[in-house]
Design goal:
The radius of gyration is 20 Å and the shape is globular. The chain has eleven helices and eight strands. The strands form three sheets. Strands 1-3-2 form a three-stranded antiparallel sheet. Strands 4-6-5 form a three-stranded antiparallel sheet. Strands 7-8 form a two-stranded antiparallel ribbon.
């Protein structure tokens, strides 16, 4: 008799740390990498943020699976998205910083699932969101730990504006907000701009960027954004 193979369950944000604490942990990876040029393990980070090392180790699974941390054997470096997130946050623009996290997460299993669900029903209650994400996660055991993880995931999606809560406490998703990449805007008054390549950040002369775009780029329609 064949034994049915159990489907692999998906990771959720840690239920043992608040989302804000998890952001602090992510930012610490970025700070250490930019200061020392090295990766960090969970013990390094735990000592920096004053958290239990085992709890930190457990927390990293979700973020590494979803493109914010890169590495193996327990040592991670921040992705380019995480470096940019930390820089924006450092300069006090927390809302813009959070929006940077949209791009690495927009193709994650939970966003893909919600895109389908919101096409069927344009508004969902928090309970419906939890049910949808819980089923999609393929986690068989429903307990307080899992429910907290699901609540943290919903909070994350709300913070990065993939879902929006209305005055009736129902959630909606603006489909084009997760499918379109925001174009880079270069102002005439700017002298330099920051460009991230991999895990490295560069300062680039704006005039050189303009020359490259004008000589190599293809002009897009402002209305429908397709190649002319």
């Amino acid at each position: 008799m064949k034994t049915e193979k159990k489907e692999k369950s998906q990771e959720l944000p840690s239920s043992r740390l608040s989302l804000e604490k998890q952001f602090e942990i992510l930012k610490t990876f970025a700070v250490i990498h930019q200061t020392k040029g090295t990766g960090s393990n969970y013990k390094d980070i735990a000592s920096q943020v004053g958290a239990n090392a085992t709890v930190v180790s457990d927390c990293l699974k979700f973020w590494s699976e979803n493109g914010l941390l890169e590495g193996n054997r327990g040592t991670y470096v921040p992705s380019s998205f995480l470096i940019e997130f930390n820089q924006q946050s450092h300069w006090g623009d927390e809302d813009s910083a959070l929006q940077i996290l949209r791009e690495p997460l927009q193709n994650a299993w939970f966003v893909t699932e919600l895109k389908i669900k919101f096409q069927v029903k344009n508004k969902l209650s928090q309970n419906e969101l939890r049910q949808t994400l819980g089923l999609a996660s393929k986690i068989s055991k429903k307990d307080s730990r899992i429910m907290t993880g699901l609540n943290n995931l919903i909070e994350l999606l709300e913070k990065i504006k993939i879902i929006i809560k209305d005055s009736d406490d129902h959630y909606s998703m603006k489909m084009d907000s997760v499918d379109k990449r925001k174009p880079i805007s270069v102002q005439d008054s700017d002298d330099m701009m920051q460009v991230t390549l991999g895990n490295d950040l560069y300062a680039v002369d704006v005039n050189e960027i303009k020359e490259f775009v004008l000589s190599k780029g293809k002009k897009l329609s402002k209305i429908i954004q397709k190649v002319d």
